[in-house]
Design goal:
With 146 residues, the chain is an all-alpha fold. It contains 7 helices and no strands.
Length: 146
């Protein structure tokens, strides 16, 4: 990868959140059932809800990318990391704003700032701590356009 942009960072975070939801459930080792599988007839199934279908488990490459992506959130302030992760989990803006007690514009600005900081660090540049959020976002947009 030559240059990281906020779009590529967002795509990786979305993929990481998706991979986490597709991982198999954690089970306690050593416990198992000895009961045989029951053969159900149609009358047994009447009134029951169909089983919940799950997507197939992620590939090892996707799990590896997810493991590379998760430490990126430690580069952000905790409140910004939680907001970026909430958006990666595809939470609607209304829910995000209610959860963090901020307006839609503020939530979007913090989300863009978080993605910009991550892309900035992935590109090997020093983080501009003494600059405003707007400055960092605009600089990252300029880099993305090139």
């Amino acid at each position: 990868m030559t240059e990281w942009t906020t779009k590529t960072v967002d795509d990786r975070l979305l993929e990481a959140a998706d991979v986490l939801t597709r991982l198999p459930d954690v089970r306690v080792h050593g416990y198992y059932g000895l009961w045989p599988k029951m053969i159900l007839q149609f009358s047994d199934l009447v009134g029951q809800e169909p089983p919940k279908l799950r997507r197939p488990p992620p590939s090892p490459e996707a799990i590896g990318r997810m493991e590379q992506t998760m430490p990126w959130l430690t580069w952000l302030e905790p409140r910004d990391a939680k907001l970026v992760w909430a958006r990666a989990e595809r939470s609607p803006w209304k829910v995000v704003c209610w959860r963090f007690g901020i307006s839609r514009a503020t939530a979007n600005r913090r989300w863009e700032y978080g993605l910009s900081i991550i892309a900035w660090r992935l590109n090997g540049r020093p983080v501009l701590r003494k600059r405003s959020q707007r400055f960092v976002i605009e600089r990252m947009r300029e880099v993305s356009r090139l």
